[in-house]
Write a structure and sequence with these properties.
It comes from Tetracentron sinense (Spur-leaf). This is Pentatricopeptide repeat-containing protein. Keywords: Repeat. By secondary structure, the chain is mostly helical. Among the domains are: 164 residues, Alpha Horseshoe (Serine Threonine Protein Phosphatase 5, Tetratricopeptide repeat); 97 residues, Serine Threonine Protein Phosphatase 5, Tetratricopeptide repeat (Alpha Horseshoe), CATH 1.25.40; 104 residues, Serine Threonine Protein Phosphatase 5, Tetratricopeptide repeat (Alpha Horseshoe), CATH 1.25.40; 85 residues. 68% of the residues lie in helices and 1% in strands. A two-stranded antiparallel sheet has the order 1-2. It is elongated and about 115 Å long.
């Protein structure tokens, strides 16, 4: 019968489904289990050697006696003072002989050993003896530190020092300890040090003496192996081999291997192991299932992941934060934003409070899909739950505001972030620089660039590209060139993204001739224009109504072997529509569908917008139905187009239907949509509905037009509500005159 260590495992953390303790034995010394070796014949086990230390001379014996007596009799005095008279005669040989006389007094042993280490380097044998005494005295942490410090301070060759340490530990075991835990501790220190070959050798050596390392220590080994760069295969071999040698793997062991397989994208193998667990005598837990769910989510197999979540429910297992977060991330990747928010609600209904990771994932997702209102709601909810947004959360939200051109809000968040002592990184600064450049605020952009450098952060190619793009859009091409020369001087290389950004900047500034010349310069520099370069130029030609030139560029692009993207087709579609060539636009849509090219909401929106402008709501409805039939989900822009079109055509039933659907999906009305919807409802004499929408618009800080203010001023006056009438008159003067520019921009 062999005593085996079985430490208590700590509660798992959400950030990673597996958390194997490195020294769980420190907190629970009494949880040993007896295990009969099934794979070894105990009669063939090698006995531990008898201990026979070097004998002291008579003179040495007298000195050791005096030292031991002095230590015991004057135990409450500082040891350096007690042993001062013996320092000149003290040798490293004396350490073991003194230890023999005081071994039953743990405190004296370690005080003496510390004193001896400061004066003479103790022998490896003496160190091993003290390790045994520590374990026998129920101080495993000290033993752990003594073994660990040996490698940290010795500077010896690992292989040779390992061999010597093991030999001495085994040699001193029978006389000084007889506690198998000492070998568990040694095994765990080797694992923590990453000495994986030595770990395997030590395991085999212990088998020769009839000892099997506990499953919990072996789990630590599996965990460290599976987390190393090339250790997954070795972990799988150990997992396969060790049961034959007496290790009985438990649920935690299987979880480690499942997690490792999933990280290596071998999800099917991980799922098979999950299914086999019960036949191996282990019951899968939440971590087992969550690891495989996460694995399927990582490879984009949402349906498989959801099936496993359903299976968890059947088994009475509740998904944890890790499970939900995996699904939320994948839903966002697939553009299923509302479903992701639904998963969050389900998560909270089960009493699981989302952490920073979950909230940040959702906020980032909503920002990327342009739904800032939902992102801000989550940001507020996160804080109301007592969770502090971190730098990643702030950066995600700042990114969202910058993409939407809301630089005032982005700047406010940035200063809030600094006020809380959070450090922005290169991504945060580059996002703000890019946002300011797109807004034409070049002074602010360069101020941020200088702050970034002062804080020791290095601007990258993306940072300089954003600055150059902003300068080009303002027509400062020469300054942009100087900036790019500075960038090259710092060892950064211009790439295709930089050139594309410059081409885009020149096009936005209306300087298409220079943009075409820059595209030619790209070839000279050894960088070939790509689909984005061509699409950018085509967009400029389309917006200026030069559809023939845009078509020529498309043909040139195809001749060079570049594949158009959905953005390329959307550029062409928008060009046809704004040029009044609606039949050509419909033909392009039909051709895309025939060729298996899936249009997106933007493709359909261009056609719907133009038909709405032409007040042809029958054709608009036809396009909308075709969009839904193809499984393309309408976006915020789609709903705004439909609501404006139906409102202006006085189809208020349809307009209100689309408004309800839009709100249910978390989208918001634009200013122009609010104005159109309010006017349409008001004309139908549904005054309370119109008033409710008007108040909602005011709460959102949006600017209604003059006609709407006149409508509600008259309505309130007729109702005898003079205070509201005067309030709206003041507001109309402020908003419609002072805020006219803002209203037009919106």
């Amino acid at each position: 019968m062999i005593r085996l260590l079985n430490p208590r495992r700590p509660e798992q953390k959400q950030a990673c489904p597996l958390s194997i303790p490195s020294n769980g034995y420190l907190t629970d010394m009494n949880r040993f289990s007896n295990q009969k070796l099934s794979s070894l014949d105990s009669t063939s086990a090698r006995p531990f050697p008898d201990y026979s230390p070097k004998k002291p001379t008579i003179r040495d014996s007298e000195l050791v006696h005096h030292i031991s007596t002095a230590i015991k009799q004057r135990r409450f005095e500082p040891l350096p003072r007690v042993l001062k008279p013996f320092e000149s005669k003290f040798r490293s040989d004396h350490v073991i002989w003194v230890l023999m006389r005081i071994k039953n007094d743990y405190r004296l042993v370690f005080d003496f050993f510390d004193w001896a280490c400061l004066r003479r380097d103790p022998s490896l044998e003496a160190r091993c003896i003290v390790v045994h005494i520590a374990v026998a005295s129920k101080h495993p942490k000290t033993a752990h530190e003594l073994i660990r410090d040996f490698w940290a301070k010795s500077g010896l060759d690992v292989c040779s020092s390992f061999s010597h340490f093991v030999d001495r530990l085994i040699y001193t075991y029978k006389e000084w300890g007889l506690e198998p835990l000492v070998f568990e501790i040694f095994f765990q220190v080797l694992v923590e040090a990453g000495l994986f070959n030595e770990v395997g050798n030590f395991f085999d050596k212990m088998l020769n003496y009839g000892l099997v390392i506990s499953v919990d220590s072996c789990n630590l080994f599996l965990s460290r192996l599976s987390n190393s760069s090339d250790g997954v295969d070795m972990a799988l071999k150990i997992f396969s081999k060790y049961p034959e040698l007496g290790v009985c793997w438990n649920t935690a062991s299987h979880n480690i291997i499942i997690h490792a397989l999933c990280r290596s994208e071998k999800v099917e193998e991980a799922h098979s192991l999950l299914i086999e667990m019960e036949s191996r005598g282990c019951v899968p837990d939440v971590i087992s299932y969550s690891s495989v769910v996460d694995g399927y989510c990582r490879v984009g197999m949402l349906q498989k992941a959801l099936e496993l979540v359903g299976e968890m429910g059947i088994r009475g297992l509740k998904p944890n934060q890790f499970t939900y977060n995996s699904i939320i991330i994948l839903l966002f990747k697939n553009g299923r934003v509302k479903e992701a928010e639904g998963v969050l609600r389900e998560m909270m209904s089960h009493g699981i409070i989302p952490d920073n990771v979950v909230y940040t994932t959702l906020i980032d997702g909503f920002c990327k899909f342009g739904n800032l209102a939902a992102a801000c709601r989550l940001y507020d909810k996160m804080q109301s739950e007592g969770l502090d947004p971190d730098a990643i959360t702030y950066t995600a939200l700042i990114c969202g505001f910058c993409r939407s051109g809301k630089m005032v809000e982005a700047d406010k968040l940035f200063h809030d972030m600094l006020g809380k002592g959070l450090m922005p990184d290169e991504v945060t600064y580059t996002t703000l620089i890019d946002g300011n450049c797109k807004a034409g605020k070049m002074k602010e952009a360069f101020t941020l660039h200088n702050q970034m450098v002062q804080k020791g952060l290095t601007p990258n190619v993306v940072t300089y590209t954003a600055l150059a793009d902003g300068l080009c859009k303002q027509g400062e091409v020469e300054t942009a060139n100087e900036l790019l020369h500075e960038m090259c001087g710092k060892g950064l290389e211009l790439n295709i993204c930089t050139y594309n950004s410059l081409v885009n900047g020149l096009c936005k500034a209306g300087n298409i001739e220079q943009a075409v010349k820059l595209m030619e310069d790209m070839e000279v520099a050894g960088l070939h224009p790509d689909t984005i370069t061509y699409t950018t130029l085509m967009d400029t030609y389309c917006k200026s109504g030069e559809m023939v030139r845009a078509h020529e560029l498309l043909r040139e692009m195809l001749d060079k072997g570049f594949q158009p993207t959905i953005v390329t087709f959307n550029v062409l579609m928008n060009g046809f529509c704004t040029s009044g060539m609606l039949e050509d636009g419909k033909r392009l849509l039909s051709w895309m569908l025939e060729k298996g090219i899936t249009p997106n909401a933007t493709t359909y929106n261009s056609l719907m917008k133009q038909y709405c402008i032409g007040k042809n709501m029958r054709a608009t409805t036809e396009i909308y139905r075709g969009m839904c039939a193809q499984g393309v989900m309408p976006n915020s822009n789609s709903y705004n187009i439909l609501i404006q079109g139906h409102s202006k055509a006085r189809n208020m039933k349809e307009a209100c239907y689309f408004h309800s659907e839009m709100v249910a999906k978390g989208f918001s009305l634009r200013v122009s949509s609010y104005n159109a919807l309010i006017k349409g409802i008001f004309r139908k004499k549904r005054f309370e509905e119109a008033r409710k929408l008007f108040e909602e618009m005011r709460r959102e800080g949006l600017f209604a037009d003059r006609e709407i203010y006149n409508m509600f001023v008259d309505l309130n006056y007729d109702e005898g509500n003079l205070d509201m009438t005067l309030e709206l008159c003041d507001e109309a003067i402020e908003k419609c005159i002072v805020g006219k520019a803002h209203n037009e921009h919106s």
